[in-house]
Amino acid sequence: MTKADATPVLELTGIGKEFGAIRALHDVDMQVFPGEVVGLMGDNGAGKSTLVKIIAGNFRPSHGEIRFAGSAVHFNRPVDARAVGIEVVYQDLALADNLTAAANVFLGRELKRRFGPIALLDHKAMAARALELFGELRSETRPDDLVKQMSGGQRQAVAIARTRLSNARLVMMDEPTAAISVRQVEQVLGLIHRLKEQGVAVMLISHRMPDVFAVCDRVVVMRRGEKRADKPIHQTSPEEVTALITGAKEAA
Predict the structure, then answer these.
(1) Distance in angstroms (rounded) separating the CA atoms of residues 93 and 179
(2) Fewer CB within 10 Å, N or C, the chain?
(3) What is the pLDDT of residues 154-189, one digit of tens each?
(4) CATH number where 79 lies
């Protein structure tokens, strides 16, 4: 099936957001397809964060329509977005340093075994499932590893494994390669490739041009609340994207 025949996993039409007299977003249209990695770029204040929060259910749009897997959706809170298959991996990852990788993967969704009226955590089952998820991501992270002893790349693997536990169809990643080593950057980009191979759509919010051009199929550039470009990665260049971000070029 070609992209032209596929139903977008996410489709935004005319999305706008106002905070009183401040217009944060203006008529943004966007599509993301299954197994596609889309880079979302723009300077601070460009509207990226507002757009992500609308998709994730933190904000309601002032106007416009969101469709997910072909159906119109209305999110009042983040749990509504998660229910349809949207997960966000935030820059701080929201991991518990004092817990193991497996415990973090299942945090808030623990598996339990019942013995009559008593329910106990099923650590063995959670460790086994976490091991499967890390295997799918080709990560060296082990279920019993403590998060506080992990590298940045391993921490990302734990956060991404958590999204796979819920069978996410769209994963939005906020600056996943910020403040980590070159080797760890390669690990994280590899994790994004694994998600793509599994048919998961990924939206990569990043300021790092090399990462976007290494892993993305398409790049969307925001400036002053408007979408200024939406191009296949092979039809643009870092120089053009930089010009769009800074305003040296208005649109492409």
Answers:
(1) 13
(2) N
(3) 999 999 999 988 889 999 999 998 878 888 899 999
(4) 3.40.50.300
User: At 46, is the secondary structure helix, strand, or coil?
Assistant: coil
Confidence at 208, pLDDT banded by 50, 70, 90: very high
Q: Is residue 134 part of a domain?
A: no
For residue 56, give the amino acid letter. Answer: A
In 3D space, the residue among 222, 189, 198 whose CA is nearest the CA of residue 12 turns out to be 222
Give the chain's domain count: 1
Helices marked H in the chain — which ranges? 48-55, 78-84, 101-105, 123-136, 152-165, 182-197, 209-215, 238-246
The length of the chain, given as a count of residues: 252
**182 belongs to a structural domain:** yes
Whether the model pTM is above 0.85:
yes
One DSSP character per residue, 144-177 reads T-BGGG--HHHHHHHHHHHHHHTT-SEEEEESTT
| Domain span holding position 8 | 3-97+171-246
pLDDT digits (tens, 9 = 90+) for 62-110: 999 999 999 999 999 999 999 999 999 988 888 999 999 999 999 989 9
The residue assigned the tokens 């694994």 is 194
At a CB cut-off of 8 Å and minimum separation 6, what does 221 contact? Answer: 41, 42, 227, 228, 229, 230, 241, 244, 245, 252
Q: Of 212, 95, 215, 98, give the one whose Cα is nearest residue 160.
A: 95
Q: Name the average pLDDT for the chain.
A: 93
Residue 226 has pLDDT above 50, yes or no: yes
